[in-house]
Amino acid sequence: PPGAQEFIPADAHSLGELKAAAPACRGCELYEDATQVVFGRGAEHARLVLVGEQPGDIEDQQGLPFVGPAGRLLRDAVGDAGIDPSVIYLTNTVKHFRFELRGKRRIHQTPGPAHITACRPWLVAEFSLLKPDLVVALGATAAKALFGPSFRVTRSRGELLPWPASAQRPQDFPVAESRALATIHPSAVLRADDRDAAYRGLVDDLKVAAEVLA
Ligand code: URA
Ligand code: SF4
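^ Those are the sequences you sent over. The predicted structure of the assembly is below.
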């Protein structure tokens, strides 16, 4: 795929301008079957960016990230970690819903490496306007987008990492002070056999983020 870069206004000065340009993106084929693009949302001066995988079925219909069950769980975990929700910006690695149609049901499909690469310029553009103190990758897709394809969430979750080079343009903000962190995806908590333990693990990782923000 050609990638999102050519659809991103180079002179965008606000997230609103970026968001307004996103519906015209043809950076990969995912726009064809999705209902609409689902752009990030949250504080214009967010200190913490939470990056998910891609919109789910409900997000695709409503046009907003993290409004379904995973989003509810994420909001609970953020609260239990002691993070002020007003400092957060929520977004996704890939901004259109990828699914497979089975009968009338739309079954979630994990975005592939080509979708991650194609859509990453939007994420980089969001970072360059937000200049956050910290980014948290939720799950493997976001972690691979930020830290590279060989990154393993199971091995490195909860570790405070330097700001990833792949998340910055050369002309962007000095990010020496900015940090990054990976944890599991809230959907993985919903699917876990031991849901309470998985939830506690997510909250523990988010407490590392809370300390950075403190
Ligand atoms: N899962 C995600 O990764 N993102 C959303 O927006 C919703 C569910
Ligand atoms: Fe563009 Fe990303 Fe949608 Fe692909 S998934 S069309 S790159 S916004």
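The first strand starts at residue 41 and ends at 42. The pocket of uracil (ligand 1) is lined by residues 52-56, 59, 65-66, 68, 70-71, 92, 187 (CB under 6 Å).

Shout if you want it in another format.
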